[in-house]
Specification:
The complex is a heterodimer of chains A (220) and B (110). Chain A is an alpha/beta fold and 220 residues long. Helices cover 44% and strands 17% of the residues of chain A. In chain A, α1 (12-24) runs parallel beside α2 (41-47), α5 (123-141) runs parallel beside α7 (172-182) and α5 (123-141) packs parallel to α8. Chain A is globular. Chain A starts with a strand and ends with a helix. Chain B is an all-alpha fold and 110 residues long. Chain B is built from 4 helices and no strands. The longest helix of chain B has 45 residues, at 65-109. The chains are: A alpha/beta (220), B mainly alpha (110).
Amino acid sequence: MVFIVVPAYNEAKKIGRVIRDLFQHGYENVVIVDDGSSDDTYVEAKKSGASVLRHEVNRGQGAALQTGNEFALARGARLIAHFDADEQMNAGDIGGAIEKMRQENLDVVLGSRFLGRATGIPWTKKFFILPLARFFNNIFSGLKLTDAHNGFRILSRRAAEQIIIAQDGMAHNSEIPAQIKKYNLRYAEHPVGFAYDEYGQGMDGGMKILRDLLFGRFIK
Amino acid sequence: MILFQIFFSLFVIFVLGKTIGRWRNKEIGAGWLIFWIIFWLLAESAVLSPRLADLAAYSVGIGRGADLIIYISLAVLFFLFFRLLVKQERMNRDITKLTRKISLMESDKK
């Protein structure tokens, strides 16, 4: 049983289309975690027929993913896919990633924009921010990946039970590879498409991630 | 004794009283009690006898006692600020746990 976990914050305009697209690709168990949105994300997601959880206050993408993981595990998920609510990811990539997982007997598949067909990556991001993020990610996690902070990933049940996302914000994208290494999980990268229509994390976001990772080390 | 020394001594007595009170109420451990007693007694001796601070500064290669006090104060402030941030982060994680629990409980009801 495949569960698609979609954290959503103020995505009322897009969430319906994202859910419909996932249903059209044959995924029945779509879990939206509305992370304390101030718009109609919850209502729109409900209307579209997905399972919808709601954080009463905004806690961040990492927190929403962990909530979605726990919900999916409690309902018997064998595989959990993390997918974004902003229409930048391609639902068609999930099937290929799952296939790869089964063929190679993997615990985790991580999406990579640099192996695949990602289009329109802003040049400052492609040549400056992402290489820097990759460098820090590799140092922090110990995994050498071609991409950093790509939210597309598939976790086996075993992986989702072991990986506990404690980083509430965007630093979970570095925390997850670190836990893959820690628990010696079998992983591979998979090329994914990515359609940029907004900039996403900039330098400010990067600094916050570094700060979160640093303080995270002092919290048990 | 100059006026500043009188006010500072009264302040130290007040702070030490508060600290001992917090230790008695088990709000802080014995380690922190000892740390704060030593800290405030050192601060008091530096204020009562500036020459003592000058000597201590000189022995560690700093020219003036007042400079030594500023350096130590900055280090202590940085340390306390860092502890505060870690505490805030821990509290944030607790809020997340509560939010998640409520969210999952609500989903079970439906």
